[in-house]
Amino acid sequence: MAFIHDVLEEPSYGWKDANGELSKPTPRQIFSEFFSRLNIFSNKKNWLSFMSWAMVLCLTPFLFLFIFKYFSITGLVIAFVYSMIVMGTHGTIWYHRYCTHGAFKFKNNFWRFFTQNLTLKIIPEEIYAISHHVHHALSDTPGDPYNAQGGFLYCFLADANHQPVNRNLDEKGYNRCLTLMKHTGVTCNTYAQYKKWGSVANPFHMILGVIANWAFWFTAFYLLGGMGLACAIFGAAGFWAVGVRTFNYEGHGKGEDKRREGIDHNRKDMSVNQLWPGIVAGEWHNNHHLFPKSARSGFKPHQVDSAWYYIKFMHMIGAVSHYHDSKKQFYKEHIKEKVKKITEPVFCPTTGKQIFATERV
Ligand SMILES: [Zn+2]
Ligand SMILES: [Zn+2]
């Protein structure tokens, strides 16, 4: 079986039903799979999914502390900006454009480390990046880890149910996973360690990395604004980690065809350009599916792209050595052709006089 069909651990309800169509599990099946995938006592290979949700759980008390003990309007504004714009944009820059698509290159490992740890670390790179390659290859078909036709829960709990790496890869398959991860700087397991832990990421390095990241940011925010600021930011980060799990469902039209003429130019899958994820995080998802390797997804003038601004700025100061930008290609292939057609001279059928499209329009 092709690597892309085999690289993720198939859920107990399968990717396809007996007719070869998307297997649509019931909410009960989804929850049952979810809890079995988080159970580290039954199988320690569940450690990464467990850790991913345990981090969200650890951040919840900070949110409550902020709401019930340290609440202030300033804190609320900071929390809003941090969860929506800072975490969202960082997710696009780091997990999406760099780790998965390699849309740009850092000049050296310092700038990679700097960007990786620019916000609180909550999502393991491996969970996001490897499965996202599958999402692009199999968009909206069985095997797509967050196929929106599977429903909200199918996507919302995908990081545990559909995104972990297959635990039975042979050495060749595992090495292909390593090639997808090697530029990220994540310390990876040897094949023997993978057989033991079921993951590409090395558990000890991963856990140490998260502890160091959280300790650094807690100290920094505490020194800047005391417990109030630290709780606002940590709570906001937890809020984002849950909220971001809804994106994959909505970014592909909630399982329906919501593509609009003149807005969603890519017609190969159900991805849509949405205003809110675009504005806060640069996730113009339909544009992105057209040009996945582009470091910019906001192509049109109103499509602000904060992730692109960061990458461009880093390039200006020499921290990013190379990037792909598909804006010109987007206009050439999807906008200019239309403009050309409209401005071609046309002739009045009665007078025979040449009129121009601008007059006609
Ligand atoms: Zn997509
Ligand atoms: Zn992508």
UniProtKB/TrEMBL annotation:
The name this protein goes by in its record: Fatty acid desaturase
UniProt source species: Mucilaginibacter aquariorum
Gene Ontology MF, one: oxidoreductase activity
InterPro entries with a match to the protein in the record: Acyl-CoA_DS, FA_desaturase_dom
Domain Fatty acid desaturase: 77-293
EC number of this enzyme: 1.14.19.-
Compartments where found: Membrane
Alphabetically ordered keywords of this record: Fatty acid biosynthesis, Fatty acid metabolism, Iron, Lipid biosynthesis, Lipid metabolism, Membrane, Oxidoreductase, Transmembrane, Transmembrane helix
PANTHER family from the UniProt entry: ACYL-COA DESATURASE, DESATURASE 1, ISOFORM A-RELATED
Keyword Lipid metabolism: yes
EC main group: oxidoreductase
Membrane-related topology note: Multi-pass membrane protein
Family: Belongs to the fatty acid desaturase type 2 family.
Keyword Lipid biosynthesis recorded: yes
Residues that span the membrane, as ranges: 47-67, 73-95, 200-217, 223-244
UniProt superkingdom: Bacteria
